[in-house]
Design brief:
The protein is built from 15 helices and 6 strands. It has one domain (37-367). The chain is globular. Helices cover 47% and strands 3% of the residues. The chain has a two-stranded antiparallel ribbon. With 376 residues, it is mainly α.
Length: 376
């Protein structure tokens, strides 16, 4: 295909690391992570906190580690990353133990997910015992690990759960186990595997999108693949953002680039119309001049629409590694269905509106006369 006149930006040859190095384990007071973000005042405290900056810096460093790096690139796999990949293999195998219940034409979450989730809770601490850190540190990391797979009560998943994947891996960086040299493998191997398992969970148990319509219009479930995926394409010599509309390109290169794999997956479960109809924001973004602009925009959007949104961050937890600041969590709020305090937003996108899973609607349409709603 002809190369656009809009030349792609060249990635800087070397970018400084933003995430502060690990400190001595003696500086931590490990504790079970709990929710602390209840009110908008708590959110402001969080946005000015070291933990907020830590999450942003770590996300940026991971993003920069895969600038112009496709999935097939050979990257070193440290013993820690291999251990985490092995843990993910156990998660994947656990899905086979709990097949979905036969609930007819239901488009909403399958209750077998709750049995799968309970199994993770029972096994997570055991799986983390191989890590060379104090038990309390392993237990704290295991809590973020469990939260990364969705919500047991609501049988849903969204950007807030995805954030726990970042928190889980950030714990290992703060504990001195994860090194900057591991960052490419964290994205190309570990995150890709996490994304693959999450797609399997979504299609097996019909996880509902967390919120009134997924992740702020990008995708029903994920955000980070579009950030890291646009980094991979940053200076691509011929692929442009508009390439996502080419079925041939998606078929050929979805395995090489996370962004393209996301578009291909969305197209596979939303076949009623094109991106313009069911994913208008992704369609709008495809008009950008180059991937560098998309990558920068995704980074700003993540800070504003995920880390900066109370309905998402009310469910994030703080412990001894990722710490809350003084005064956070002192508001009253209401108790949700899990007994946790939070404040309902106007439209109930935090926990109030059930949204059917698109894949469930597609499966129902394939086998019966049940018609899908156009905005699934």
């Amino acid at each position: 295909m002809p190369i656009s006149r809009n030349k792609p930006p060249q990635a800087p040859p070397e970018l400084p690391l933003l995430t502060p190095p690990a400190t001595s384990l003696e500086t931590f007071t490990f504790t079970s992570p709990t929710r602390k973000l209840i009110t908008s005042h708590d959110l402001k405290l969080f946005q000015n906190s070291p933990t907020h900056q830590l999450l942003l810096s770590f996300t940026t460093d991971l993003n920069n580690s895969v600038l112009n790096v496709p999935n097939s690139t050979s990257v070193p796999i440290s013993p820690l990353v291999q251990t985490l990949l092995d843990i993910f293999d156990r998660v994947d195998a656990a899905i086979d133990e709990f097949p979905p219940e036969d609930v007819g034409l239901s488009r909403f979450g399958n209750r077998s997910f709750q049995r799968f989730y309970d199994a993770l809770w029972e096994r997570a601490k055991e799986w983390h015992k191989v890590l060379d850190v104090p038990q309390e540190a392993r237990d704290e990391a295991a809590r973020y690990f469990c939260e990364a797979w969705g919500n047991r009560t609501r049988i849903d998943y969204g950007s807030g759960h995805e954030l726990n994947f970042l928190a889980w891996t950030l714990c290992f960086q703060q504990l001195g186990l994860l090194q900057p040299a591991d960052y490419p493998a964290v994205i190309l191997r570990l995150f890709n595997k996490y994304l693959s398992i999450m797609r399997r969970l979504q299609t097996t148990y019909y996880l509902e999108p967390a919120g009134s319509h997924g992740v702020w219009g990008l995708d029903d479930y994920q955000f980070l693949p579009f950030l890291f995926g646009s980094a991979q394409l940053y200076s691509h010599s011929y692929l442009r953002p508009k390439s996502i509309h080419s079925s041939d390109i998606l078929e050929e290169l979805a395995g090489e680039y996370i962004y393209l794999s996301c578009i291909a997956f969305i197209n596979s479960i939303k076949t009623t119309a094109g991106l313009r109809w069911h994913s208008p924001m992704l369609d709008d973004i495809s008009a950008a001049k180059n991937w560098g602009k998309i990558n920068a925009g995704m980074a700003k959007m993540y800070e504003k629409e995920v880390l900066g949104k109370l309905p998402v961050m009310q469910h994030f937890m703080f412990g001894g590694i990722l710490k809350a600041v003084e005064g956070m969590g002192e508001g009253l709020g209401d108790e949700d269905r899990e007994g946790m305090r939070h404040v309902h937003s106007t439209w109930g996108e935090c926990c109030g509106i059930k949204v059917p899973a698109s894949v469930a609607a597609k499966r129902a349409e394939e086998g019966t006369e049940l018609r899908r709603i156009p905005f699934d």
